[in-house]
């Protein structure tokens, strides 16, 4: 980055919102897991969509690479810079508009966290449809950029299904406003969908119109145990089609064991595999849940939470698994999307692969089993073991008809494996779109495409 670029950015946003402090940059150049790091030359924090757009133009004209950062919760090193980049943070874009209760929508800045948007929706007796463990730090701009899913995907879908409109600062410094007051607008190209899941390679999302949902009057939660993963997956296949399903979360007892040891959070059911089930609707769901549980091949008496306190205790079991992933150092993460019939064969093959490559590693599998969207985390895996294991695991995912990415994106960590899920023609078409919008390739250059 040249002195001129730094001076222009400082004049644009103010000295308080530009930093070249090495300690600040080092802290911003490491990924959420602590496993991958890069290098940056400056951090700029614009305060408006216009400032984002002008900052992009300054960097493009000055020949500086830009890496976009929101809450920095990427699990595929999607916010780790590689080219002495300017880090452009959306963290100051935190305005939340008035909730439209009639049309059930709200406009919010890209830097708004999932938790803050949930709170705004809740105050209007509505629900924001995406929830995830990193809700306190994950920003909705980043969630749109990766098309995040999360804990409520089985009911509400991924982030893209919550988006009614976007504001995007394009690589040339112009601002695209794609909004409509009507629910159905089939006018021209669906540019909103183009930017959702693009991982910041085509532009910077600065604002979003978000669809909200009616808040269910009643919830009931349970944790059920199964002797085999196939039995649990079969239960998930049955439950995901229930009209009032709200969550279906696979919980690995290996993660539960670590959570019990490290956090004192014990599972209420002893079983080989656990499934958190939640129903939500306008009427009491307790009897419906009881009827469903009667139909499942459970290995033990399930734990059921009817009141809010009991439900929170059951959810604590699921979320504690996220909290212990760093118990033995930075975990190695795989975002696994599999056909349901392949879940148990993959789990067994993955355990065998780990035993061969990294004896003593602890595999922890959890996630959104209704969609076959699971997260395999490898604990006690040293960086020296990662390279050979990562490639072998990606090959294993492909062999079980899985996808390179489900809800976390490709980032820089999976870019070498993009051809596992996309043909050469498909990749060439995506590169054509990238070149059309960002011909110099300066924006999020480390993400999605291999050099």
Automatic annotation (TrEMBL):
Sorted UniProt keywords: FAD, Flavoprotein, Oxidoreductase
PANTHER family reported for this sequence: D-2-HYDROXYGLUTARATE DEHYDROGENASE, MITOCHONDRIAL
Q: Which GO terms describe its biological process?
A: respiratory electron transport chain
The signal sequence is: none
Q: Name one GO molecular function term.
A: oxidoreductase activity
Q: Which family does it belong to?
A: Belongs to the FAD-binding oxidoreductase/transferase type 4 family.
Tell me what organism the protein belongs to: Mycolicibacterium fallax
**Protein name, entry field:** Oxidoreductase
Q: Specify the superkingdom.
A: Bacteria
What InterPro entries does the annotation carry?
Answer: FAD-bd_oxidored_4_C, FAD-bd_PCMH, FAD-bd_PCMH-like_sf, FAD-bd_PCMH_sub1, FAD-bd_PCMH_sub2, FAD-linked_Oxase-like_C, FAD-oxidored/transferase_4, Oxid_FAD_bind_N
Stored Pfam families: FAD-oxidase_C, FAD_binding_4
Q: Which cofactor does it need?
A: FAD
């Amino acid at each position: 980055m040249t002195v001129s670029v730094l001076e222009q950015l400082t004049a644009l946003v103010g000295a308080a919102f530009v930093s070249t402090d090495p300690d600040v940059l080092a802290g911003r150049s490491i990924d959420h897991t602590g496993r991958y790091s890069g290098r940056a030359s400056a951090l700029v924090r614009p305060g408006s969509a216009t400032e984002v757009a002008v900052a992009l133009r300054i960097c493009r004209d000055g020949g500086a690479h830009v890496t976009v950062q929101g809450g920095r919760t990427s699990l595929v090193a999607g916010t780790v810079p590689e080219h002495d980049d300017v880090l452009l943070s959306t963290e100051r874009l935190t305005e939340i508009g008035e909730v439209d209760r009639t049309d059930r929508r709200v406009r919010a800045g890209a830097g708004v966290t999932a938790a803050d948007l949930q709170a705004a929706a809740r105050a209007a007796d509505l629900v924001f449809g995406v929830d995830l463990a990193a809700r306190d730090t994950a920003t909705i701009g980043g969630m749109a950029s990766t098309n995040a899913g999360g804990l409520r995907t089985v009911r509400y879908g991924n982030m893209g299904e919550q988006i009614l409109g976007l504001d995007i600062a394009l690589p040339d410094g112009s601002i695209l406003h794609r909004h409509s007051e009507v629910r159905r607008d089939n006018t021209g190209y669906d540019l909103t969908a183009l930017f959702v899941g693009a991982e910041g390679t085509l532009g910077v999302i600065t604002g979003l119109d978000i669809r909200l949902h009616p808040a269910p009057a009643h919830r009931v939660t349970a944790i059920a145990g199964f002797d085999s993963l196939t039995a649990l997956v079969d239960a998930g296949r049955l439950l995901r089609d229930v009209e009032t399903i709200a969550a279906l979360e696979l919980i690995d007892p290996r993660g539960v064991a670590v959570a019990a040891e490290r956090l004192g959070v014990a599972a209420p059911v002893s079983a080989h595999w656990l499934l958190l089930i939640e129903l939500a609707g306008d009427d009491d769901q307790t009897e419906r849940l009881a009827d469903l549980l009667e139909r499942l091949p459970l290995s033990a008496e399930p734990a059921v939470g009817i009141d809010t306190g009991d439900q929170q205790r059951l959810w604590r079991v699921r979320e504690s698994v996220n909290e212990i992933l760093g118990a033995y150092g930075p975990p190695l993460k795989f975002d696994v999307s599999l056909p349901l019939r392949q879940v148990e064969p993959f789990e067994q093959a993955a355990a065998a692969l780990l035993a061969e490559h990294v004896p003593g590693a602890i595999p922890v599998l959890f996630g959104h089993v209704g969609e076959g969207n699971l997260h395999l985390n490898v604990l006690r895996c040293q960086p020296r073991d990662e390279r050979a294991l990562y490639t072998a695991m990606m090959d294993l995912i492909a062999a079980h008809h899985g996808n390179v990415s489900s809800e976390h994106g490709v980032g820089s960590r999976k870019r070498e494996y993009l051809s596992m899920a996309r043909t050469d023609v498909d990749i060439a078409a995506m590169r054509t779109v990238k070149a059309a919008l960002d011909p110099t390739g300066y924006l999020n250059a480390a993400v999605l495409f291999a050099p």
